[in-house]
Amino acid sequence: MRTVAAKEVQAALDFPSLVETLREGFRGDVAAPVRHHHSIPRTGEPDATLLLMPAWQSGRHVGIKIVTVTPGNAERSLPAVMGIYLLNDWTTGQPLALIDGPMLTLRRTAAASALGASYLARQDSERLLMVGTGALAPHLIEAHAAVRPIRSVTVWGRSAAKAEALARSLDRSDLEVGFTEDLEGAARGADVISCATLSREPLVRGDWLQPGVHLDLVGAFTPEMRETDDQAIRRASVFVDTRAGATKEGGDIVQPLKSGALSEQDIAGDLFELARGERTGRRTEEEITLFKSVGTALEDLVAAQLVVERA
């Protein structure tokens, strides 16, 4: 059985290739039950979460990702997300590869947002606002820049020092990267807003959204978490990665469903429907679009298959 380390995973999963691999995965026949989600009480810090994410593709592979999400790790200077991916042979069940889970998760999560943006963000989107400074943020920036002509990136975080540090680490010749403490001002000037936080209160307000903006909500993966408010939901055309997952796990969808700001019939499409051409993505230049992802084991499986093919 092969062991594939984080650097090998990142090298194998360039975003142009991974986005197209995910697109084909959502068009295909991968079975991915809704993930098992278990809360683990912690003393003196937020509760941790254990996630079990199985998936299989007939004739190819069976896989499972085992993940822990520990918000308290921020105080330990450790990533919140830890885990491992096990890929098995379809016919025999023999374990084939043990793959670094955090890097696989970072790459496939960012690629799913980029896949959504390929249908929902304006073709001429140049200005990206990154809300959040965690491990996922640089991957989201790279992924969005792979599908849209992003030229300017602004980073906002609860800690201005962390936002500045992330911006400095990302500065490169093809991107102008800076940081801000003015979240509202940055949101009003963005073409794409990507949020990856563990917030339990709305950060981006619907009243701030300008015509034509695309809002990408990646964090807030439990019903109690929230990155935007009901007004954003009311103003936007709402899309999700999967209906089964987002309507049960993502607070940005679950809470508006409970408040009446959103009905399940109002959800304009998911990645299955977009990839298969069953639903239209962005329809006008002025439309506000919103994409909420909570992750699906389908993404992990097809990403793991690409890693094994290339590593």
CATH architecture of the largest domain: 3-Layer(aba) Sandwich
Total count of domains: 2
Order of helices and strands: EHHEEEEEHEHEHEHEEHEHHEHEH
Question: Share of helix among residues?
Answer: 25-40%
> Structural class, please?
alpha/beta
- The CATH homologous superfamily of the largest domain is termed NAD(P)-binding Rossmann-like Domain
**CATH class descriptor of the largest domain:** Alpha Beta
Q: What percent strand?
A: 15-25%
pLDDT average, as an integer?
95
Number of strands: 14
Q: Enumerate how many helices there are, as a single number.
A: 11
Distance between the termini: 13 Å
- What is the overall silhouette? globular
| Low-confidence segments | none
Question: What Rg, in angstroms, do the CA atoms define?
Answer: 18 Å
Main sheet attributes: strand count, strand direction, barrel closure: 8 strands, parallel
As laid out across the biggest beta sheet, the strand order is: 9-8-7-10-11-14-12-13
Please give the structural blueprint.
Layout: E1 2-4, H1 6-12, H2 15-27, E2 36-40, E3 48-57, E4 61-69, E5 81-89, E6 95-100, H3 101-120, E7 127-131, H4 137-147, E8 152-156, H5 160-170, E9 176-179, H6 183-188, E10 192-195, E11 214-217, H7 230-235, E12 237-240, H8 243-249, H9 251-259, E13 269-270, H10 271-275, E14 289-292, H11 297-310
Parallel strand pairs: 1-6, 7-8, 7-10, 8-9, 10-11, 11-14, 12-13, 12-14
Antiparallel strand pairs: 2-3, 3-4, 4-5, 5-6
Helix pairs in contact: 1-3, 2-3, 2-11, 3-4, 3-11, 8-9
